[in-house]
């Protein structure tokens, strides 16, 4: 029984960390209409930043500054914000699919740089990071429980922050620009500045998620920042429902549960000779889930509650 | 240096073929189709199967057309594979994209294409295994074209380039001389207006998938001929093909052709400056550079 | 949560081979072990199949510590998140005390730091080559729970350089897979070659999932090297070599063991591999190695050639023997503590097949220690769980792969010392 609880805490921690990243994307896509195809770059900058700032020195590697943990985590977010700001300046005026592919390229370039720069860990990645409070809490279940609580607090904080943000005049402005950029511009607003702000803010949140992720594993390598993660985070948002933070969190838990449970179920119930094919089968199943979802309920499980048009019929 | 330039053009022709279909579908249906490169895989594997069949029917067909490693049976298989892949593109559209189109927005389509790509890729892996396959295990030596500057060219690659250019030329004739070509352009410019003037939109979509799929199959077979076939072929080629499309400008067929060559050239020339570890990033550096200078690609027009 | 459950096993082999076992009576318990391997990639699937094969052999002899072994296999998708989650599920839900895997260091490392070490589960990797594990062990953070049967890349790099020297090559171009293993061995071999006075004309990274390596090959051709060294897997190795040969590059080739594959030989063609020399960590000079190869060939319709296969086999065998030595209901730490009893140089030599497994159990039950003569050599772990091993050079032949020269552990160590 303790095993099941221990696993659930572990699962919930990873899902909560991913939820934070999904909410960051929701701010960019759901609320502002920015098609960020390079989520993993900002997630990765946060992760690398946190470990480099907070880790112990390693031979031949940059960093190991050993900053206090919260400062390192914050530093990772700042790094993500700076990178997002530069990327945003270059790409924010691009149309949807152009923006998606340009940012996707940024993510691939990021991974390539990390893989080839020895000072940033190279293909081996960055280690030598001490998880905070490990001395006090030990290394086992208690630690995981405490860390889960910490992640949960940050998840709730991010959620509340974003909810307040989209209720605020700035949030209304975001939606206005998403719906009709020209109209917003004619009212004297600068859409590109607002979009850039939203892009940077969303990326900082992704950086936070990345920092937590790296903390949890006390390790990060180029393998953690492959495009598949961008895809996973997007799938979570789409299934949950873009524009709705509750949906973003629910979508994350559902997709991550489906992703892991399908592997578990195949390993348990598939016949022995099929076991070696489970990888391919799992990806086929995931593909079907995504396509099926888009066919069945393209607005996601928890669609955005539109407050724009008051005259529309009440929510069913 | 000159070798890199020539190699770039030879590799680029494959990307061009892939990019033509992608640019047409992206323009017409207004979504970034991440499953397009999987059509190359379907084409390459379909040709592999047909090639085996023909070779079994008549051994003479399995003889290579010297100096190429291409065989008669593979040439026939290529034609069949183009037809079959075109049809599969239509079927995929019928089963998935058409329905998603009817329900959701642009992003739903992009996501559906991700899902479709995943299904196709792993299905091929389940059927044919994950190991790479070859049309012919023979290695055909490159021909020394000139000693100074030193220049080597592989016969297969020259054939690929000529065949690709020929296919593009036929397409050019179709687009500029036939009613279909005119209708296609009309639809691309203004779908609503085109429909009012009596063009059957859904038939145009079917034709675009047929052409795009056929060209993709040719690209897949040519790629297999000069490299190797594996289930992740589509995954490896999707980004260079996207780069070619975007550099050319979405919707511009001639842009796609040029974009393919540019991306091929840039990837080959990049190693002159950059260590090879960085080559995966090269197509994107090109995309970024082009988009910053010309946000709609070299030949693309602005649209909303 | 030691996962002892009664369940019918899918393998009906136990009965047939019961005569081999020492305790074949009353087989009504099953012990689960976990495996997290990348079954969704081309080179990962055979590694998993080989691990399962080793488990089958153990079960043939009557199982481990009186119980049949059930290997629960999970795919990592080469995604660290997925791998770590799978490992955590195996540890928490299935209660495994022994975890085999992963292949990529980037997956094995987070599993080690966040799952197996905190839970006190023993982790045995066949193929993770990163030097980061050594450093982690030196810092005392693995709690002695991590082992790997992948000999550190230093041996193969040195032997590769030795081959180049013995063949009299004056210049060599190096191709390496752009991952932790390739970067490591590629860098080492370049240093070793330079130390021997051989010119390294180019060191070229070969990236995963790249459509064409034409430009990379052209780049290497420019230096006009007398030979090439390859630390590549068969998929990209085939592509690079075919391109290289067709462009008229030299057929003097040296390669690390990852290219020891029939697929590579067939797709390149014997006529071009006359001057190809491979390196590998070696099997000892005993009949057992041949027996293992023969048994494997019969089972899989081909010899155990491919990246990590022999390592995966040894990893599984050693771990299972240690599990037997630790007895029923052993914890991960118990099992890890018994590794020394399996790889004791002074122990009774046991072969890497069913008979060897049965003999090992017999010796261990009597309180003795054994020296496992594995598929990759008479494996010995140092205090960090790393392996050092003798080396061998091999060549492709019409009938398969043939050994050329054997280098004992002393020879290897002496040569490596001479390089510095």
If you had to describe this structure to a student in words, what would you say it looks like?
The complex is a heterotrimer of chains A (316), B (304) and C (420). By secondary structure, chain A is an all-alpha fold. Chain A has one domain (2-226). Chain A contains 13 helices and no strands. Chain A has helices at residues 2-31, 39-54, 69-91, 96-116, 134-137, 141-167, 169-179, 181-186, 191-217, 227-240, 245-269, 272-275, 278-296. Chain A is globular. Chain A starts with a helix and ends in a 20-residue tail after the last helix. Chain B is 72% helix and 2% strand. In chain B, helix 2 crosses helix 9 and helix 3 (72-103) runs antiparallel to helix 4 (106-128). In chain C, helix 2 links the parallel strand 1 (30-37) and strand 2 (68-75). The radius of gyration of chain C is 21 Å and the shape is globular. The chains are: A mainly alpha (316), B mainly alpha (304), C alpha/beta (420). Chains in contact: A-B, A-C, B-C. At the A-C interface, helix 1, helix 11 and helix 13 of A face helix 2, strand 2, helix 3, helix 4 and helix 5 of C.
C-alpha Rg of chain B (nearest Å):
19 Å
Could you say which overall geometry of chain B the principal axes of the C-alpha atoms support?
globular
Architecture of chain B in CATH?
Answer: Orthogonal Bundle
How many helical stretches of chain B?
A: 11
Q: Largest sheet of chain B, described in full?
A: 2 strands, antiparallel
Oligomer: heterotrimer
Count structural domains of chain B: 1
Largest interface: A-C, 47 and 54 residues
Give the topology string of chain B: H per helix, E per strand: HHHHEEHHHHHHH
Radius of gyration of chain A: 20 Å
Name the helix and strand elements of chain A from N-terminus to C-terminus, one letter apiece.
HHHHHHHHHHHHH
Name the average pLDDT of chain A. Answer: 86
Low-confidence stretches of chain B: none
Share of helix of chain A, binned: over 70%
Q: Report the structural category of chain B.
A: mainly alpha
> How many helices of chain A does DSSP assign?
13
Number of strands of chain B: 2
Strand content of chain A: under 5%
